[in-house]
Amino acid sequence: xxxxxxxxxxxxxxxxxxxxxxxxxxxxxYGAGNISGSFLSYQYTWSDYNRVQVDYGLSANDxxxxxxxxxxxxxxxxLPNLGENFQWFYGIGLSGSGYESNDPxxxxxxxxxxxxxxxxxxxxxxxxxxxxxLMIGLDVNPSFNFFSNFYESYDSNIAVSLRWQx
Length: 166
Prior knowledge:
Helices cover about 10% and strands about 60% of the residues. By secondary structure, the chain is mainly beta.
C-alpha cells in the first residue's frame, strides 16, 4: 500500500508540473451506440501531437440502464489543406461499461463489460479565428468487446463534440 501511495504521489506531481504547459478541454460528446446520448468529455493535451481523452456517459431506456467510462490516448495531425484550424486525430484505449436490467425477463450474464476502444475524427478550433476557446469535432469510435457475451463483439459510435478549452 505505501508503494502504491508513493507511485500515486509521483504521478500527481508529474501531471501537475506539466499542467502549466498543457491545454485542457471540457465539454460534451454526443453520439449513438450501445451507450448512446451525451458524454461528459475531458481532454488533456501532452504536446502538439498527443493527448488523453476521458469520456463518461449514462444511458437509460425501457430495458436497460447503463454507464460507460472510456479513456483513449490520441495522436493529432494538422490538416493544412483545409485550414490552419483543422486537425485530425486517431487513438486507442479501453472502456468499462456497467448495465442493469429494468425488465425481469432480461438476464444480464456479465453486468460489467470491458472494451478495446479506437477513435478517429476531425476537429475545428475557433480560438485563433474567432478568439473563442471552443473546439467542435466529429469522430467515429469503433469498440471491440473481448471479455463479455452480453453485447455484440463490435460496436461503432459516431459522435459530435463541443469542448471549451482552458
